[in-house]
Amino acid sequence: VTITSEILKNTPEKSSADLAVGHVISLRDLMKCVLVSNSQECAVAIATTLAGNLNDFVAQMNRRAVELGATNTTFTNVTGYYSAGTRQLTTVRDIAKIIKYALSLDYIEDYSNSRMITFSVGKSNRTMFTKNLIDEYITPFLLTDNPDFGPLASAIGRVACFYAVGVIAVF
Q1: Residue 98 has what DSSP assignment?
Q2: Which letter does DSSP use for residue 79 in this model?
Q3: Among candidate residues 37, 34, 44, the one with its CA nearest the CA of residue 10
Q4: Residues 34-45: pLDDT tens digits?
Q5: 112: helix, coil or strand?
Q6: Residue 78 DSSP SS3
Q7: How far apart are CA 58 and CA 39, in angstroms?
Q8: Cα atoms in the 13 Å half-sphere on the side-chain side of 90
């Protein structure tokens, strides 16, 4: 995937992936950056690559959320960025359903529990560190039939990957 000015223009805040116009990065490495550092520009790059534009990808995110039983969730963008103009809504229960599905995908759990990843941009390798540890905070609540959503809400608050779950659900 080649990073374009359009991708960067649609990124509210730059993240630690530090991508620039013309950089080339694989879809797999984009996903690693979303999971490990919540890279907004990588989420936008995935969305525009897979759906052609952000609005179509958001529509796919919303359809997938409903398929997963997350019927009280409305995504309005792919970054999770909140502003007065966006009415992105969800519940802890819905996020738990989406995360539970995402964790059923082996590579998601592997990357989301990594403290460090290496990814390639063009011919150079970069290293990224994180505190995104889903196993430590989220998984224990999802392994029971009736999780207590109070502590789960607190645990989700410690894991800074809210918007990544929507991207994961579609990816």
Answers
A1: H
A2: S
A3: 44
A4: 877 778 889 999
A5: helix
A6: coil
A7: 17
A8: 26
Give which of 45, 58, 29, 81 is closest to 170, Cα–Cα. Answer: 58
**Please, what is the average pLDDT of the chain?**
77
Distance CA 166, CA 111 (A): 16
| Token pair 């290496």: residue | 118
Q: CA–CA separation, 152 vs 134, rounded Å?
A: 11
| For range 98-116, the mean pLDDT | 75
Residue 15 pLDDT greater than 80, yes or no: no
Task: For residue 71, give both structure tokens.
Answer: 């019927």
The predicted pLDDT at position 38 comes to 77
DSSP string covering 49-70, please? HHHSSHHHHHHHHHHHHHHTT-
> In sequence order, which ranges of the chain are alpha helices (DSSP H)?
5-9, 27-37, 40-51, 54-67, 92-103, 106-112, 134-137, 139-142, 149-158, 162-170
The pLDDT score that the predictor gives to residue 112 is 67
